[in-house]
Specification:
Structural class: mainly beta
Helix content: under 10%
Strand order of the largest sheet: 3-4-5-6
Largest sheet: 4 strands, antiparallel
Distance between the termini: 38 Å
Number of helices: 0
Order of helices and strands: EEEEEE
Number of domains: 1
């Protein structure tokens, strides 16, 4: 697939049983507690946030997974 700017993108593998969800997450930063709706992926019984608490995007990383069961 050709992307704008001449960059070629190839899908190597699509994860089956992964679904995009919006989860309301709470995080403690310093002495403050913040909560907000967060774009996540539910995969293999875990919720994996797709951005940091300050809204910077991150890659799907199982180390960031939050167990739901």
């Amino acid at each position: 697939m050709q992307h704008d700017g001449g960059i070629q993108i190839k899908i190597l593998k699509a994860l089956k049983n992964a679904e995009v969800q919006i989860a309301y997450l709470e995080v403690k930063l310093d002495n403050d507690t913040h909560s907000s709706p967060t774009l996540c992926v539910r995969y293999e019984g875990n919720i994996i946030p797709l951005n940091t608490p300050d809204t910077r995007p991150i890659l799907i990383n199982m180390e960031n997974a939050i167990k739901t069961s």
